[in-house]
UniProtKB/TrEMBL annotation:
Catalytic activity, as annotated: an NDP-alpha-D-glucose + (2R)-3-phosphoglycerate = (2R)-2-O-(alpha-D-glucopyranosyl)-3-phospho-glycerate + a ribonucleoside 5'-diphosphate + H(+); (2R)-3-phosphoglycerate + UDP-alpha-D-glucose = (2R)-2-O-(alpha-D-glucopyranosyl)-3-phospho-glycerate + UDP + H(+)
NCBIfam families, per the entry: PRK13915.1
Pfam families referenced in this protein's UniProt entry, alphabetically: Glycos_transf_2
Gene Ontology terms, MF aspect: glycosyltransferase activity
InterPro entries reported for this sequence: Glyco_trans_2-like (IPR001173), Glycosyltransferase_2 (IPR050256), Nucleotide-diphossugar_trans (IPR029044)
Lineage: Bacteria, Bacillati, Actinomycetota, Actinomycetes, Streptosporangiales
Keywords: Glycosyltransferase, Magnesium, Transferase
Protein name: Glucosyl-3-phosphoglycerate synthase
Domain Glycosyltransferase 2-like: 36-142
Record-stated family: Belongs to the glycosyltransferase 2 family.
EC number(s) given by UniProt: 2.4.1.266
The keyword Magnesium is annotated on this UniProt entry: yes
Transmembrane parts of this sequence: none
């Protein structure tokens, strides 16, 4: 039996390219719906301004709100983003009655809470080759196909070394070494997503508010798995955006990211009743830096579906 027949059928039906979605068609399809673009940003002063400007000047008729969530930056991220024309909120200032949590997933969830669009696009703030097609491409299937509730980007990912040497197709190490094997093991229906960990995706607010957001780097894997349970594979699509160039993290940092992704997968297996956990998982990771041991806390917490949280406390305007 061909285990991937369903995935191939889905991929044929639900994969498109950014060039399939011309702007005039999208603006017409948008109608009166509001679109918010949310950028989680921790120390991204070097890139966030250019991305905000490109969205603001390139997609004035398509994007109603650009929101940068300053994720405890130590640099000028907030100022640069505001000067480029974004609305900026600090991660810990949104829903401040809740205990603060660190991490990208929490920044996204706070962005969802503080934004107002009917359709929400998430874009990483460290992209080096951003163009407006990142946003318009993701909006294409959502604005034109009622049954689609979530759209994920796919792209080619080079690995660029510190000396500037480019290795085409070698980016996405955690994707290839951890996420893809995990998905194929336990959720093979999701194996058609070419970039399951990519930070660029979009969804309908009413869909995104029905799923939890893992606080750290497990957020993308958690969303895919949880959305599969809510809207099914056919409610999801992917769009080819071409190439994506971003800032690479060290191997040790990617080890901690991989740990958070494994913890997220484990929590979903547990929730789905697919494992019997007799003792709590160890939330620490022991790594060796040039032979020297270093222990990191890689634990992840979770935010509940936003719909279950009092809306008036979200700090929304209007
Ligand atoms: O505590 C944090 C950490 C990161 N970020 C931002 O999140 C985005 C992506 O973070 P980054 O550290 O650059 O992640 P990558 O190494 O690029 O990891 C990839 O894989 C992760 C795990 O799935 C995804 O979350 C990322 O979007 C994806 O690009 C960037 O804008 C960061 O500034 C935050 O807002 N808060
Ligand atoms: O998605 C991933 O696998 C991580 O972001 C690592 O990507 P990189 O290997 O391109 O840095």
């Amino acid at each position: 039996m061909d285990a991937y027949a369903k995935v191939r059928r889905w991929a044929r039906r639900r994969t498109s390219r950014a060039t399939d979605w011309p702007l005039d068609r999208l603006v017409e399809a948008k109608g009166t719906r509001g679109v918010s673009v949310i950028l989680p940003a921790k120390d991204e002063a070097a890139t966030v301004g250019g991305i905000v400007s490109a969205i603001r000047t390139g997609l004035p008729a398509l994007v109603d709100e650009i929101l940068v969530v300053d994720s405890r930056s130590a640099d000028a991220t907030a100022r640069v983003a505001a000067e480029a024309g974004a609305k900026v909120v600090h991660q810990d200032a949104v829903l401040p009655h809740l205990p603060a949590l660190p991490g990208k997933g929490d920044a996204l969830w706070k962005g969802l809470a503080a934004s107002g669009g009917d359709i929400v696009v998430f874009v990483d703030a460290d992209l080096r080759n951003f163009g407006p097609h990142f946003v318009s491409g993701l909006l294409g299937p959502l604005l034109t196909t009622e049954e689609i509730g979530f759209v994920k980007a796919l792209y080619e990912r080079p690995h660029i070394t510190e000396n500037g040497v480019t290795h085409p197709g070698e980016g996405g190490r955690v994707t290839e070494l951890v996420a893809r094997p995990l998905l194929n093991l336990y959720w093979p229906e999701l194996s058609g997503f070419v970039q399951p960990l990519g930070g660029e995706y979009a969804g309908r607010r009413d869909v995104l508010e029905r799923v939890p957001f893992v606080s750290g780097y497990g957020v993308e894997l958690g969303l895919l798995i949880d959305l599969l349970g809510i809207i099914g594979l056919d409610g999801m699509a992917q769009v080819d955006l071409g190439d994506r160039v971003h800032a690479h993290q060290s191997t040790a940092a990617l080890g901690r990211m991989a740990g958070q992704i494994l913890l997220t997968a484990w929590s979903r297996l547990d929730r789905q009743g697919r494992i019997l956990s007799s003792e709590p998982l160890n939330p620490y990771l022991l790594q060796y830096e040039r032979g020297r041991p270093r222990v990191s806390d890689i634990s992840v917490a979770e935010r509940p579906p936003l719909a279950s949280v009092a809306r008036q406390k979200a700090g929304r305007q209007g």
